[in-house]
Write a sequence for this structure.
């Protein structure tokens, strides 16, 4: 999972105000319900010391409609001066919450982002196509782009004879040239904007022509989902269920691909490490490609719940102890931070991704692991014994 959207928080002054809000506005009372939830959180934040200017800015943002259909959430994070993150969540939080403190609460937002997918919905017919992009949260935006062909002989008609066959061929050529226009534009946009998926729907013949016309980069991320159309009369609920199913399957594949790589590298004792100390060591050096955090079993707080790390001003200035932090040259700005926040902060600081692993999906000492970009002789090395009853004995540093 890409964490670039959290980068504006790096190096900013505390206190941080973090708001997780159920932003659903489906019915006539939806807007009032959102305001009621926010007002209760605002009173709590006032007591906790959030700056009034920040709360006023959040007032304005919450009052604006999100235009997102169906249930959804919203996360807002501000530093001492301004709102830096305003992101929609594909699922609303079970309970709206807010906090003001020395660090932003990043993990719930990261978990929500893990359930999102950046995709492009393409609804095509024989005249052209409508594009609807998701925003960063994976929710469809309310703005649709239209790509139209310039060939207008669109309808085949009954009849016979040479003139009729010629007309039919001209119509077919018009369809194909219009589809070629869409395909060229789609190739360009996918190259520039890199969606994880392109969901294609619409007129059956136009869909088939477009699938044949696009380039390899589009084909690699293209999924056909029947039931959509540029025209009115679509069963929106049934079509959305099909899209949700495709997205759920994609997220499972995306997560499993990362965890498969982690297992492979861990088994070979190569480009994967686990345990809090070793992950901190490789984060310090900017070696991490993907941070892996274990999701605790239901009802369990997890091994990182009460752990804290020592950090400095820079995101890669982190250590297990104050002495270890001093050993890398950080003394004056040394302070403690919840381990999960410090780990995510360091991952953001080196453009690493983040993947959550269900309890037992991979062998994680201390509930944390990392896939590496590179290693050298001083990098910790892991060996995993599949029959061991004590995961802490699996960790060897050489």
């Amino acid at each position: 999972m890409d964490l670039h959207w959290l980068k504006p928080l790096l190096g900013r002054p505390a206190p941080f105000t973090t708001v997780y809000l159920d932003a659903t506005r489906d019915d006539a009372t939806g807007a009032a319900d959102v305001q009621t939830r926010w007002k209760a959180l605002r009173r709590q934040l006032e007591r906790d010391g959030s700056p009034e200017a920040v709360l006023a800015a959040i007032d304005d943002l919450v009052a604006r409609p999100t235009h997102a259909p169906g249930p959804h959430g919203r996360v807002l994070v501000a530093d001492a001066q301004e709102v830096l993150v305003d992101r929609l969540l594909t699922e609303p939080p079970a309970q709206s919450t807010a906090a003001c403190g020395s660090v932003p609460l990043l993990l719930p937002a990261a978990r929500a982002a893990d359930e999102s997918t950046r995709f492009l919905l393409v609804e095509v017919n024989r005249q052209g196509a409508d594009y609807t992009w998701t925003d960063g949260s994976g929710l469809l935006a309310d703005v649709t782009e239209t790509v139209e062909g310039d060939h207008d002989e669109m309808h085949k008609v009954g009849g016979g004879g040479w003139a009729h066959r010629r007309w039919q061929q001209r119509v077919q050529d018009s369809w194909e040239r219009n589809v070629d226009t869409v395909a060229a534009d789609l190739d360009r946009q996918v190259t520039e904007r890199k969606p994880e998926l392109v969901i294609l729907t619409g007129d059956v013949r136009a869909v088939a022509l477009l699938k044949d016309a696009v380039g390899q980069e589009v084909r690699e991320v293209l999924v056909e989902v029947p039931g959509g159309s540029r025209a009115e009369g679509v069963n929106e609920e049934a079509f959305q269920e099909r899209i949700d199913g495709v997205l759920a399957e994609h997220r499972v594949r995306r997560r499993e691909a990362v965890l498969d790589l982690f297992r492979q590298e861990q088994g070979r004792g190569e480009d994967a490490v686990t345990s809090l100390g070793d992950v901190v060591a490789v984060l310090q050096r900017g070696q991490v490609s993907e941070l892996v955090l274990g999701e605790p079993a239901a009802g369990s707080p997890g091994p990182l719940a009460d752990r804290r790390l020592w950090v400095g001003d820079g995101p890669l200035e982190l250590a297990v102890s104050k002495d270890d932090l001093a050993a890398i040259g950080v003394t004056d700005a040394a302070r403690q931070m919840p381990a999960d926040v410090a780990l995510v902060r360091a991952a953001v600081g080196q453009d690493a991704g983040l993947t959550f692993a269900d309890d037992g999906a991979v062998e994680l000492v201390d509930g944390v692991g990392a896939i590496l970009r590179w290693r050298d002789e001083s990098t910790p090395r892991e060996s995993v014994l599949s029959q061991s009853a004590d995961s802490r004995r699996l960790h060897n540093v050489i």
The first helix runs from residue 30 to 48. The two ends are 30 Å apart (CA to CA). The chain is about 35% helix and 20% strand. The CA atoms of residues 201 and 226 lie 5 Å apart.
